[in-house]
Design goal:
globular, mainly alpha, 6 helices, Leucine-rich Repeat Variant, 109 residues
Length: 109
């Protein structure tokens, strides 16, 4: 997908909004855009205080498919509530299914 820098930066910045609904919507949008620049901010969102944000961040990381998310997702799995654990497991499966190819561009998706 075409990764418009301004758009990506806007949604990354929204991950720090005080409103949790804006944070989880930003995570969802970043997952739909599937740009590798969102990986690190989404990994940080796995520690959000709101479980819905953590769930969407895990979902988004699965959609982006970057193997950098594997260890943080596994770590998040240990202390998470049941509904979020399911999404984390799905994200781990999605990343593994993409073949651990860290040298993908957005055009390869």
């Amino acid at each position: 997908m075409n990764g418009d820098t301004g758009r990506i930066e806007h949604f990354i910045a929204m991950l720090d909004d005080e409103d949790p609904s804006k944070r989880w919507r930003a995570a969802e949008t970043l997952g739909r855009i599937r740009d590798d620049r969102a990986v690190e901010p989404l990994i940080l969102a796995l520690d959000d205080e709101d479980w819905r944000v953590r769930q969407k961040a895990a979902w988004a990381l699965g959609k982006v498919g970057d193997p950098r998310a594997l260890v943080p997702l596994r770590r998040a799995l240990m202390n998470e509530r049941e509904g979020v654990k399911e999404i984390i497991e799905e994200a781990l499966d999605e990343i593994k299914a993409m073949g651990y190819n860290p040298v993908r561009s957005a055009d390869d998706r």
